[in-house]
Amino acid sequence: MFSVPCQPLHGFFIGNDMANLIDGLNAELIRNREILKIYEGIPERRFGAVMIKQSIKMAEKAIAEGDIVAMVRACKELQSTK
After folding, report:
1. Distance CA 78, CA 12 (A)
2. Greatest C-alpha distance within the chain
3. Tell me: the pLDDT tens digits for 4-46?
4. Whole domain around residue 24: which residue ranges?
5. CA–CA separation, 77 and 68 (whole Å)
């Protein structure tokens, strides 16, 4: 796996840093949607699927609202999905 940039530069988003955050978040959304497909096919993973769906919705909301703090939080949460 690769690491996507989800960290602000010295606490501030300058220039391309915001684009990097959104790109990283979108990459994590794609990865988590693929994992979600796998989890939905395994009855023992239903709870995990619910948690992944919740994380995806949180990330989509953060992007829609332009909430940078929520985007960073969502990106970190999506990165923790295994």
Report:
1. 21
2. 44
3. 455 544 444 545 677 789 999 999 999 999 999 999 999 999 9
4. 17-79
5. 14
69 falls within a domain:
yes
Number of structural domains found in the chain: 1
* Residue pointed to by tokens 């948690």: 51
Residue 10 within a domain: no
Q: Is the residue at 6 inside a domain?
A: no
Phi and psi at residue 79, to the nearest 5° = -65, -25
44-82, pLDDT tens digit by residue? 999 999 999 999 999 999 999 999 999 999 999 999 998
Helix (H), strand (E), coil (C) string for 34-82: HHHHHHHCCHHHHHHHHHHHHHHHHHHHHHHHCCHHHHHHHHHHHHCCC
* Residue 42 in domain: yes
pTM, 2 dp: 0.77
d(CA 47, CA 45) in angstroms, rounded, equals: 6
